[in-house]
Amino acid sequence: RTAVQRRVSQSLSLNAAGLVRYLYGLPFALMLLGGYWLANPATLPAVGPLFLLFCIGGGLAQIIATNLLILAFGHRNFVVGTAYS
After folding, report:
1. pLDDT of 18-77, one tens digit each?
2. What residue segments make up the domains of the chain, in order of their start?
3. Distances in Å between the alpha carbon of 51 and those of 36, 37, 40?
């Protein structure tokens, strides 16, 4: 996934290359959630405002870190970018 993102970042903008990474992982996340629900058919726990705040903070941190990783690929070679990750 990281190698594909490096190739994609050469033809797309920084944010578009990061979006590709998350869109690539979305089907796998949905399959995992579906598999969990099939294995445990109980209702999902309630989502409170504090939980959503932490999700938003974690998501923003992940987006920033992904963009920084793509920038590292542009300034250094693949091995150094992977080591930073």
Report:
1. 787 788 888 999 999 899 889 988 887 888 999 999 999 998 998 888 888 878 777 766
2. 2-84
3. 20, 20, 21
Q: Give me the pLDDT at residue 50, please.
A: 95
Residues contacting residue 5 through CB under 8 Å, at least 6 positions apart: 17, 18, 20, 21, 70, 73
Do residues 5 and 57 touch, judged by C-beta distance below 8 A?
no
Phi-psi region of 25 (alpha: psi -120 to 50; beta: other; left: phi over 0): alpha
Which tokens hold the place of 33?
């959630």
Quote the DSSP letter at residue 85.
Answer: -
Can you tell me the distance from the alpha carbon of 18 to that of 16, in angstroms, rounded to the nearest whole number? Answer: 5
- Sequence-separated (6 or more) residues with CB below 8 Å from residue 9: 17, 70, 73, 74
